[in-house]
Amino acid sequence: MLSARPVEGAFRRLRWGADTILIVILLAVPWIRIDGQPLILLDIPGRKFHVFGLTIFPQELYFLWMIVAGLALALFFFTALGGRLWCGWACPQTVFSDVYALVARRLQGWSRSRPPGRVAPWRKVLTHACWVAISAFVGFHLVGYFRSPYEMLAALQSGELSGASMGFLAAATVLAYLDFGLLRQNFCKYLCPYARFQGVLFDRDTLVVAYDEGRGEPRGKKGRVDGDCIDCGLCQEVCPTEIDIREGLQLECIACTQCIDACDGVMEQIGRPKGLIAYRSLVGLEGGTIRWLRPRVLVYAGLLALVVASFGASLGARKPLGMEVERNRAMLYQRMADGRIGNAFTLHLQNRDREQRVFRLGIEPRESFELVTGLNPVLMPPTSNIEARVFVVARNGQDDGLGKIDVRFVVEEITHPDLKVERESRFVMPGGAR
Ligand code: SF4
Ligand code: SF4
């Protein structure tokens, strides 16, 4: 007798292996530190993003855009080649939905991702309690991408976790529970934006999960029809998005390969070759050979190479020190008690290095201007940014009524003066304010 239980096929074993690796990576990443710096931490209050050893400051958001563009192009490239590989094998939505469905299968006897007709109430309660517990665990790690999990754990243990952090943890828990426990693959069907535009990325050579209609039809009981499909309906029953792959390629198919395993199991049982449902291209189904090097694949690969090269070049040109100058807009200039004119500025300094650095601030031309600040030299911890409020005073004799004078702020490492950054700004005299 044919069984609707998940079939232990080759893809299913592979998928569990891939799921396990991905879950370990997703949960481990917030804990990983390199030279004391997080592997990935989007520290919004601290206004810096740690991404794979690179600390990105708000002034360098182009790095983040390049990373996002590179990931998007890599997704396009692999989608053009292998269809929805991301959805079926790497998307956290699929991976965690599988884990939640596994819990339900164990406790309620789900057939893949659907519950049986009748389930004892205590089993339902237990299932949801387990889902909430898993959601709290997943939610904690999700928030861990935005706030150090070490800090959160210490704050939790000492009872000093802030209301905002508690709120984020609760929201992440609820989100994980609703998404992976209740929505599951309905998210892929109705909400995922990637599912909507992937049709544009596919062509006739793209690998998709497809039914071999020529071999399977006409379908019916074994021995009574010529086709290999015995119309057992298992492929449809195991499908988490509840589609019938025999009706052709559909938007809802996330290429999870469960129908391949189910059908291979059926073919084995009836003594027919496996592969009635398999990874194949439309060209392959018509007897042709897949062309791997196609214009769209080459275009995506070229754009990806361009982004990677730009990223590498920007990284190579990056200085471990950064500075932006901001004028005090509230007061253009100020007349001192001795009659000299002064302008206020804020210097946004970044130490992008993983070492503590000491920087000296200066102003040029020195013979014309003096820099007044209570913070010079500036000691900056590793990967830190500070705001230094400075006052620039024109030495006597500068107020010739010309108005605005170019000045240059200079910041240099105290022990390595060659490590320095200069930024131009304008000094406003009374004549320039009119
Ligand atoms: S395609 Fe395979 S699993 Fe689906 S109904 Fe036909 S024989 Fe059954
Ligand atoms: S049709 Fe097959 S591959 Fe597509 S979602 Fe359903 S079970 Fe997964």
What does the model show?
The protein has 14 helices and 16 strands. The chain is α+β, with helices and mostly antiparallel strands and 434 residues long. The chain has 2 domains: 318 residues, no CATH class; 113 residues, Immunoglobulins (Immunoglobulin-like, Sandwich), CATH 2.60.40. Strands 8, 9, 10, 12 and 14 form a 5-stranded antiparallel sheet that branches. It has a 4-stranded antiparallel sheet with strand order 13-11-15-16, with no helix packed on it. The protein is elongated. The N terminus is likely disordered. The site of one iron/sulfur cluster has 14 residues, from α12.
Report how far the terminal alpha carbons are from each other.
93 Å
Q: Please mark out the parts with pLDDT under 50 across 5 or more consecutive residues, or reply none.
A: 1-6
**Helicity, in percent?**
40-55%
Please state the CA-atom Rg, rounded to the nearest Å: 31 Å
The sequence of SSEs as H and E is: HEEEEEHHHHHHHHEHHHEHHEEEEEEEEE
